[in-house]
Write a structure and sequence with these properties.
Elements lengths: L7 H7 L4 H15 L3 H9 L2 H11 L8 H7 L8 H17 L6 H6 L2 H6 L9 H19 L7 H9 L2 H11 L6 H17 L3 H9 L2 H15 L7 H8 L15 H12 L3 H8 L2 H6 L10 H12 L26 H9 L9 H6 L12 H5 L1 H4 L11 H11 L2 H16 L7 H20 L5 H4 L6 H21 L3 H9 L2 H11 L39 H20 L4 H8 L4 H6 L40 H14 L3 H5 L1 H4 L3 H7 L5 H14 L7 H6 L2 H8 L5 H14 L5 H11 L1 H9 L2 H15 L31 H4 L12 H4 L2 H18 L1 H23 L11 H19 L1 H10 L4 E3 L21 E3 L3 H15 L3 H8 L2 H8 L7 H14 L8 H13 L2 H11 L3 H18 L1
Antiparallel strand pairs: 1-2
Length: 1055
Amino acid sequence: MTRSQSPPLLSHIRGARNYQEQLAALRSLKDEIVGHDQYKEEWVGYGVIKVIVRILQTTRSATRPSSKESRGQAGQSRALSEDEVLRLQALQLLASFASGGPAFLSPLHGCGVIPVILSNISPLENPPQVILTALRALSNIADAASLAAPGSNDSTILADTLFAPRYLDSLYAILTSDSTATVVQEQKGLVARLISRLCKEAHHQNTLANGGILDALATILASFVVQRGEVVPEAAVVGQSDGLAEIIPSPAPRRANLALVLEAISVIIADSRFRACMLLCSPAIMAVFPSVELSPLGKEMKSASTALEMSGLSILGSKRTGAMDHLLPIVPTSQPKSLASHFAQFPPLGYSLSREQLFSNGKPSISRAFWDPARQESASSDGDADTDDPESPLIPWLIHLVRSTADAERAMAASVVASLFKAGFANPEREAALGMLVIPLLCQLLKEHDKEREASATDSPFVEPDTALGWAVLERTPTVIARLVADSEYLQQSAFDCGVVKLVCKLLKDSYEPLSARSAPRPWSPNPDSGGEQSEGVSSCRTGPPGVLPIYTHKIKMRESALKLMAAMITFKEEYRKAMVEQDIVPYIVESLYRSPRKPRSSKEKPKEGPGAEGNDADHVDHDSPYGTNPSTVIIAACHVIRILGRSVSNLRTRLEDHGVAMPVFRLLKHPDAEVQIAACGAVCNLILEYSPMREPLIKEGIVKVLCEHAHSLSPRLRLNSMWALKHVVIGAGNDLKKQCLDELEPGWLVQLICDDTEDDALHARMKLERQAPDADEDDEDMEIEPRETEAPEDLSGRTWLWPPMYRISSSSTGNWLPSVRRESPRMQRAEKKLIALRGAELNPTRKARVDDLAIQEQGLCFIGNLIVPPASAVGSSVSQEIQDMTEMVDYVFLNLGQDRLFEILASKLRVKVLHPFARRRYPSSAGDDSSSSSSRVLYPQTKVVEAVVRILSHLAASIPRHRQLVIAQTELLRLLGGHFNSKDMEVRRLLCHLMANLVCVDDSSDAQGRVQRAQELKKMGFLSKLETLEQMDAELDVRERAKDAAWQMKAGYS
């Protein structure tokens, strides 16, 4: 509540008779509170923030300038009016209160300051000084929100408000201003900083990309290219032919901050091919970086290239040499021999050549593939959307930037490179340059900034700029390295050779150094109980919790990034996992699974966990731990590390078991955050394998029931991971446990999971309801919803997405749509077509739903297959007992799922399927409309699902003769299988050969006649000729050998 006796100064502010008196009172208040948090707290109690907000609301000009006048004045310095001076002082006061830290967020939010501040950032309505002060106030609020107590959502509130469509035009106008004035450059830096601090969610990233913010940042980046004098030679000449010559920006001013621009771009394009392509297709980027071949090579480069080619280490001479490649040293571009030989013998999954191609070409050409379900699904339809285009010169230029800069600029340039590389827009040969030119520099950057922290920085609410820079590098560089090496064995080898394992383990250990204090101590006061007056009352008149120290936030961020790098480094080689656990890092990973960690302890100090050992978590209660409070992001990262460490049998049986990993992960299955549950299910997958010592304790704790509950979740990702874990539970399990799993899961629900397109059907039903709703609001979130003064061109009718660089209204004085010359540019038209294809592949909800359905169906079918597989032979057990157990489970599955129903489901997975055959297409998808996602679609059998179907049939055929006869009796099912003998997937062909061999095998003499009948039936259906074709023509030796064996058994069966 407000205090009973208000100071005279507050009365002067409220009751000022004229502008001069109120301005003088505000200046006096500012002089009193700047640098004095105690005074700020007192004035909050008097309710002064509400008074300041009221001043800002009432001092807006009664008659705002017209749009044309304001556009002409935007970015220009002029004398401030009385109202503008008053608003400037009021905004400075709000910025000062926000700089007090998290304690002042509560009164600021209580008074609704964020919308009031945002009303002062439009360059069309406010002078530059007012805009700059408003942005500083927002930046201070963002800084305070980053130090708020764990669990607060202040950053989310600010991001949701700032990135609303109504404010995007203001941010865009600031970033696209042509003024070189210092005040404007500071505005741009603050906008970029706000984006990098607040843009964390995918919907915010898409909003900024579709609102033109990404294009504006790309234009600023291009201006730095011009400033550095590194524009591609003849770029202007090339631009004359396609209308992009005039788009080359002016050089960036010396006061512009490149690191902030790179960081803002990096957070927007992260984890998205579509947004990464929007960066590459930005008109300014294409203007300064046209794909121009530059030859011949310089004398020194030519001699180096010749030497490498003669050594067999480079193929640069036969490749196109871009202009930016001349800024980089020549590096060997071929893969190491170990990798090359490995790929030659075992090509990537899904890669296949006929035997004739294999021998005629000498060796297969393997292109790098990035894991992306949406991309893989659309590869056939959009395959030529990006593979035919040359690599953008922006990528080698960014690598050059990494080599020629330092600290934050180096880290952020590498971050942008990582996003483009992971999106698949770099040449395969660029991987060698990243491994030799980028990874070592990033590791060196970590070593340089991994210093002892000064004692003054550990307990101070204020951090020196140099210290803050070092902390930022340590927080972000490990994540950049993780994104680069995650799916590349070659880059992991490069990072390992640079000593990144020891570096990242040290970072994680440093993040667990105990803190003497979590929050800054309150300043001394002669009246220590004076704060009690604010204990009650409205939120606008009392301060909130004090928040945490900057060192606290730094340690949590460093902990998260270190765990991400650990998970990325150990995905392939057991050597790296062994090197990591030898650093005694497992206790720190285990403590990261808890919200309130305690001191990491060795396995000898850690109490044994098991059933009923709840007391072992007595120290893990929610309290002010000196080791911090782990947010969900840290727990999720720790789960990923546990999951990958669990791929090693040695780790499962020693390190992970000794440190009691099982129970912490099991408890996370019941975490309130769904994302944590998903990550915990993933970690459990490897902890419950049949050779894991943690399997039995987890089963006794009731993990089967928990996983079955998650399998009924509304979240498709949680259903997927829980089915994956259940699939591992039944591997090698006894029949009683298998029956328990099936009963807990419910047979009817399992049939629904493997049979129905749950996500796709739900999406189609929702879209149908939306279309039927009368006068429904069909505005797409990607469209600009602010009213415009001009009409859109007629050819844009019916389009739900417009690429901002081609169709956005200019913020210039004309106020019209962008010149048609840009829309008529051939390069811009090709770029737009490419973006539409990528947008449909990435953001189309139907594609996402289909990917979710297929993944869940695959795991459900694998679960059935594992149910009917007998456990491994135990000592003293007989083969007849195994057959008996298997027969019992097959009959149990038939009884619960329905024999005919199961075979019909398996057959349906092998047929071409038409979804929603009577749905109509509303608009052509080429126009950028996603409404076509609800139209009828043809779906072909998916490779992984086909593999699961063949495995089930193969297991059935390995059972008793009665079950083999059941399979033979499924004529339609076998006919559908025959069409997959020429599958491009080697595993499908191998499994089909295995199935044929199982169908014609014989257990004893009593089955001899049945074998003859089965062999003759299979021959009559043409399977013998298919096997002989595979035996002679298949490119894979394993397939040829299995086909040979199956064909021999089939011939022996009817001969």
